[in-house]
Specification:
Blueprint (H helix, E strand, L loop, with lengths): L7 H7 L3 H20 L13 H10 L2 H14 L3 H28 L25 H16 L4 H20 L5 H20 L8 H5 L2
Helix pairs in contact: 3-7, 4-5, 5-6, 5-8, 6-7, 6-8, 7-8
């Protein structure tokens, strides 16, 4: 007798689509390249001696120092223009934390297996890898500073370099895969546009400015 046809879902497993093959291949390349680039993932890694420097860079892109520094500046500022900029930077940082936490909670991609879980001040969602919160924050803060602070050209270049170095260090430390960082940069770049669209001012948020 003729064999019964296979269920459709089994056929899909036996004959994966071109898109499925392409995505699986890209994922494999991402994992392989990320592991090869994790040269500071441990003391015994190729660039293990540079690990302390990479961890300093890691702290420079962490959310807590940025939040505390912005809040302190907001409390100490005696200029209405400076308070407006700092209040919106605080809003941007909080929006960044919420969006990254939501995406990490939805995707739940584990961190690279070669990552050493010795990160600075972590929370439960930090066990997930996608996207890189440091990369998201670096892109967001970089755009914010370049747009709202008057800086000389060398300082503007340093801000951009800082954002790039923070992002690259995530892969070098083994904290993230390359796609985590790339998506984080794109997300941070886009979040700045949201901040600009929802810009807080004494006109549209008088209650907030009354607090200061």
């Amino acid at each position: 007798p003729a064999a019964a046809p296979l269920p459709e879902e089994d056929c899909m497993k036996l004959n994966p689509s071109f898109v499925g093959i392409a995505l699986s291949s890209l994922l494999a390349i991402d994992l392989w390249a990320s592991k090869r680039l994790g040269v500071c993932a441990g003391e015994g890694s190729a660039w293990g001696s540079a690990r302390p420097l990479m961890k300093v860079i890691e702290v420079s892109g962490h959310g807590i120092p940025w939040l505390l520094g912005t809040f302190y500046g907001l409390c100490q500022s005696d200029s209405s223009a400076a308070r407006e900029v700092l209040l919106n930077l605080l809003f941007a940082l909080l929006l960044d934390l919420v969006m990254v936490a939501v995406v990490k909670g939805l995707v739940k991609r584990p961190r690279p297996t070669h990552n050493k879980m010795d990160m600075f001040v972590t929370i439960s969602v930090d066990k997930y890898s996608f996207p890189s919160g440091h990369a998201t924050r670096a892109a967001l803060v970089c755009r914010f500073i370049l747009r709202h602070l008057v800086l000389a050209v060398p300082l503007r270049v340093l801000v951009v370099l800082w954002a790039l170095i923070v992002s690259i260090s995530r892969v070098m430390l083994g904290r993230h895969n390359m796609t985590d960082v790339l998506f984080g940069l794109v997300l941070g770049y886009a979040l700045y546009s949201v901040v600009e669209h929802c810009w807080l001012s004494p006109l549209n948020a008088p209650a907030l400015f009354a607090l200061w």
